[in-house]
Amino acid sequence: MADQHHLELPDARLFYRTNGSGQPLIFIHGNFNDHHIWEEQVDFFGSYAQDVQVIRYDLRGYGGSSTPVSSFSHVHDLKCLIEHLHLDAAVLIGSSMGGGIALDFALAYPEYVRALVLVAPSVTNQRYPWKMLWKGISNFYQLRFRGSRSAIEAFIQDDYWSYFFPSPHRRAAREKVLRNVRNPDNFCRFPPRLAHPPRISSMQRLNEIQVPTLIVAADGDHPFNLKTADDLSKLIPQASGAMFHDCGHLPFIEQPDKFNQTLLAFIQPMLSGKRQKSL
């Protein structure tokens, strides 16, 4: 069973869970989600509890973490968590916005990062397509004027966001994502402007990433997200790619077995000792 805790910061409270010991794997969720989204990965890596330490946390403004009331940095929050846990260099696994946070963190604090796994990642300060930007802004207006329940259902029913949700033929995966999205604690709790971005866009510094990096994309994702993944694969020096077929923005939920095996194969060279040979 996972140990669950809160990290108390001067201006926030971060919820986190840990399992196992060994090479730290830090899973960072994206928008409209929280740490529960990684349950299939926790279950899988539970078999390797002597080799890896699985760490999940709720970003500030999501799940069991506190709501921001002033400017803050996701990168600084992650640094505080790593230092609090006295971790060696970690493998950061980030989904969507979480991938962008992992990328920003690796550029700010490379000594804390052993490898990156970026799943359908965004990049902070990216120029988003106008429609994607407007649709994101409209979620906040819907919340303000219609309340959380109506705003969340409008988001779910909007065909524009269909790439975010597993298709109905993957019923369990779809229900899991819907549960996460329907949690009001994961939906537009604070204005995005409070999340302080890096001074220089990470897209301009990709050549500085000097750790093994796995870029995971899915063919059913939004075209803009696919282009972002392709750009990162080309511009990060030690990048490799994995394409998932017949799924959308969250392949680790839609195809967890394939994702877990892909992740295990990627981190296996980083695991030391005799146990590595038996994985």
From TrEMBL:
InterPro entries: AB_hydrolase_1, AB_hydrolase_fold, AB_hydrolase_sf, Epox_hydrolase-like. Residues 24-256 form the AB hydrolase-1 domain. The keyword Metal-binding does not apply. The keyword Hydrolase applies. Keywords: Hydrolase. PANTHER family: AB HYDROLASE SUPERFAMILY PROTEIN YCLE, MONOACYLGLYCEROL LIPASE. This is 3-oxoadipate enol-lactonase. It comes from Paenibacillus woosongensis.
